[in-house]
Design brief:
The structure is a single chain. The protein is mainly beta. Helix content is 8%, strand content 36%. It has a 4-stranded antiparallel β-sheet with strand order 4-5-6-7, with no helix packed on it. It has a 3-stranded antiparallel β-sheet with strand order 1-2-3, with no helix packed on it. The longest helix is centred in the middle third of the chain and has 8 residues. The N terminus is likely disordered.
Length: 196
């Protein structure tokens, strides 16, 4: 997924500190990587910046965020392929698979003296991660998805009317066979972000 506001994400979430700013010709991406053996899979979210136009496309890898809450190999017969969504404010990512959704914080740890001491002592708290797993009922399958981002208050539609439905929390909307439409959202996402 190409990030909507790469400058914000780079300043707040990125682990890439070597480049001072993203140029207009660069693409800032968040990829879902998958490694597997016969029975289990490991997934990670990987931050990448691609700079086109050079003789060899310049590629920088930043944050790598392993997903530990889900290890089921992808279903090759599923109606949808795994997807990753990063709705604003780019703090929580959603990895959507045919039988499950993983929500994970991708926020950079705060740059505080306490955080430095905890990192040096190897006692950093684990980042937020949760999974909604639908595998217990074999009739349930996620067949369609979409991201939902918070809107600023008083948004105006094309007809000039103020929108009545205002999303307050980033989330994903799922079309689930045998269940209907589900919305998963993470509230109070700022608590996962860096301290201001």
């Amino acid at each position: 997924k190409t990030l909507q506001n790469p400058a914000y994400w780079r300043n707040e979430m990125s682990q890439l500190n070597t480049v001072s700013r993203i140029r207009d010709d660069q693409q800032h991406l968040l990829l879902l990587a998958h490694f597997s053996d016969k029975s289990t899979s490991r997934y990670s979210l990987v931050e990448v910046i691609v700079t086109p136009g050079t003789s060899e496309q310049d590629l920088e890898v930043g944050m790598v965020r392993p997903l530990s809450a889900y290890s089921t190999p992808p279903n090759t017969h599923a109606h949808t392929k795994p997807r990753v969504y990063l709705p604003r404010p780019a703090i929580i990512a959603f990895a959507v698979f045919s039988p499950a959704v993983v929500s994970a914080s991708i926020a950079r740890p705060p740059d505080s003296p306490d955080a430095q001491l905890m990192q040096d002592s190897h006692i950093l708290p684990t980042p937020y991660e949760d999974v909604v797993d639908l595998r217990q009922d074999s009739t349930l399958e996620i067949v369609g998805t979409g991201a939902e981002e918070p809107h600023s208050s008083g948004s105006v539609s094309d007809e000039g009317k103020t929108s009545r439905v205002k999303t307050k929390n980033p989330g994903v909307v799922l079309l689930v066979r045998a269940a209907g439409i589900l919305r998963l959202a993470v509230t109070d996402v700022e608590r996962f972000g860096p301290e201001k």
